[in-house]
Q: What sequence folds into this?
């Protein structure tokens, strides 16, 4: 794809790297169209951000006949999407599931996703499940290579399998809510470059459709008509202020806000404590700030997707997870995203994995450290400052039932249930600030299922769409499956792009 890089300010780069003293702040206002002498450039649909959501929106807008321009603040396109593993959560009988003999249905997928709890966006989940198989066909038709190979491993395959259990489907209580099925679809490549490959393909596809891309150009302010309709953007192009008009719509696809530390602390204090940010450097909340200045409503701003550092460490799951009260709080074989959510949101960010000699990590790992070691559980409990007797009580109860292969409290898979015995005991520190605990934000702009941005009264803001992590979409806390974010970005990005091209958002 042809594109021009127009430089990047030092302040922006530093902010992106988390090194700037303050956050990169956009102008917290809109510019009335009447105050603008004229446009420096014009397009039909103006997409802000060249990640998965923005590029999918651009592709569908161009296919619907619109002239499309993407502006991207970083020197290179791709955003967090290009750093990702490229896992898309899809199901209901995708071509890949069928080819591999996997039984899945729309209803099972819906029931599983709806089990995320009270915040689950049922309207978006329904349309996503109904059209998931067709969406997978679309991804494949763009050229993303999927291999007809199923992985039985827990966690994203490091080899070239394209389907695996990326969510919590096999853990309790999820396995009783809906028939489990593997729904994590990823490019069939060895290693973790699935997201990069996916973005190369989507960007090339957009270029072939005539979408223009300008990198090093950051959106700074929305331009609005007197009736509130969004008419374009003020951008910063290598230090130069330019006005770009959008005859049909502006689509905000700027990612989330994990790197704006002030914004994170204010809106998602529990996520602020996590030790690592799981996103590209452009994740500064710009899209959210731009739209809020135009009256947009936000939702789920405190939600995030945090991963406990347990992926791929099956041997340790025979140990038990305890909180600061010395009590178990989740089935240890839940997906690392579910465990992460439980620690971040429900345990004050503190947890330990109690292991005996047999349940120590089988391989060397540097994601968490030992917080305590001892020949008795009492020694360990004292070092962790747990309430007197609590840990011993939890383990006595666990062991009594584990001797029969049972876990009546959390119903961990019987294959991982056995009594903890045999010192030394180790307490591995899984607290969010002390272990490798990456997080990205899920909260954002409130949108319709078509991606139109809503104001605080629930009305559509004309000419404005938001997609991907700039919007509050499919994934909410708890994030019950890996792949929901890219599934949401690609699927709802496409819908918003098509609607924007049709001028549906013009109030
Ligand atoms: C290592 C890693 C692995 C992951 N693996 C997976 C996975 O396998 N599956 C999954 O579902 N999720 C995964 N995630 C999360 C997922 O990658 C992101 O949630 C998703 O890519 C967000 O896509 P997006 O299009 O909303 O934002 P992005 O891909 O981040 O794109 C937003 C773009 O907007 C640009 N931008 C920001 N502000 C401005 C501005 N003012 N003007 C112009 N441009 C701007 C940014 O620079 C960026 O390029 C992973 C994340 C990481 C970091």
A:
């Amino acid at each position: 794809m042809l594109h021009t890089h127009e430089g990047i300010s030092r302040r922006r780069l530093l902010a992106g790297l988390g090194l700037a003293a303050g956050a990169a702040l956009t102008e917290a206002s809109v510019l009335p169209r009447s105050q603008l002498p004229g446009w420096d450039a014009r397009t039909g649909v103006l997409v802000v951000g060249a990640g998965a959501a923005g590029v999918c929106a651009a592709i569908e807008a161009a296919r619907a006949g619109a002239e499309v321009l993407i502006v991207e603040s970083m020197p290179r396109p791709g955003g967090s999407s290009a750093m990702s593993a490229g896992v898309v959560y899809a199901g209901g009988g995708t071509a890949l599931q069928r080819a591999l003999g996997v039984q899945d249905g729309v209803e099972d997928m819906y029931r599983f996703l709806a089990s995320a709890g009270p915040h689950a966006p049922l309207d978006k989940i329904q349309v996503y499940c109904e059209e998931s198989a067709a969406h997978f066909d679309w991804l494949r038709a763009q050229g993303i290579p999927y291999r007809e190979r199923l992985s039985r491993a827990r966690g994203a395959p490091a080899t070239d399998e394209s389907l695996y259990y990326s969510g919590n489907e096999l853990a309790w209580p999820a396995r009783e809510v809906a028939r489990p099925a593997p729904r994590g679809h990823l490019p069939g490549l060895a290693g973790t470059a699935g997201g990069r490959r996916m973005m190369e393909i989507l960007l090339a596809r957009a270029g072939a459709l005539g979408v223009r891309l300008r990198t090093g150009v950051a959106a700074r302010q929305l331009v609005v008509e007197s009736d509130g309709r969004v008419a374009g953007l003020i951008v910063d192009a290598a230090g130069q202020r330019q006005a770009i008009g959008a005859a049909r719509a502006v689509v905000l696809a700027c990612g989330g806000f994990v790197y704006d530390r002030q914004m994170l602390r204010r809106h998602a204090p529990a996520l602020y404590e996590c030790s690592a940010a799981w996103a590209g450097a452009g994740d500064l909340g710009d899209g959210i700030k731009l739209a809020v200045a135009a009256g947009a409503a936000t939702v789920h701003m405190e939600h995030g997707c945090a991963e406990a550092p347990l992926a791929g460490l099956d041997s340790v799951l025979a140990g038990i997870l305890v909180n600061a009260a010395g009590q178990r709080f989740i089935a240890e074989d839940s997906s690392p995203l579910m465990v992460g959510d439980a620690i971040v949101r429900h345990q004050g960010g503190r947890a330990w994995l109690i292991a005996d000699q047999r349940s120590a990590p089988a391989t060397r790992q540097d994601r968490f450290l030992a917080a305590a070691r001892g020949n008795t559980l009492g020694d360990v409990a004292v070092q962790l400052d747990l309430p007197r007797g609590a840990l011993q009580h939890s383990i006595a109860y666990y062991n009594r039932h584990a001797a029969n292969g049972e876990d009546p409290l959390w119903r961990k898979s019987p294959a991982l249930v056995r009594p903890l015995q045999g010192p030394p005991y180790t307490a591995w520190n899984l607290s969010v600030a002390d272990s490798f605990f990456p997080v990205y934000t899920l909260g954002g702009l409130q949108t319709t299922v078509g991606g139109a941005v809503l104001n605080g009264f629930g009305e559509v803001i004309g000419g404005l769409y938001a997609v991907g992590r700039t919007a509050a979409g499919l994934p909410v806390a708890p994030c019950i499956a890996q792949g929901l974010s890219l599934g949401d970005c690609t699927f709802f990005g496409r819908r918003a792009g098509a609607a924007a091209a049709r001028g549906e958002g013009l109030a």
Remarks:
- Residues 48-54, 71-74, 79-81, 83-87, 218-219, 253-255, 278-280, 282-284, 286, 440, 468-469, 482-486, 489 surround flavin-adenine dinucleotide (CB under 6 Å).
- The chain is about 30% helix and 20% strand.
- The radius of gyration is 24 Å.
- The domain at 3-22+36-84+194-264+280-300+460-480 is CATH 3.50.50.60 (FAD/NAD(P)-binding domain).
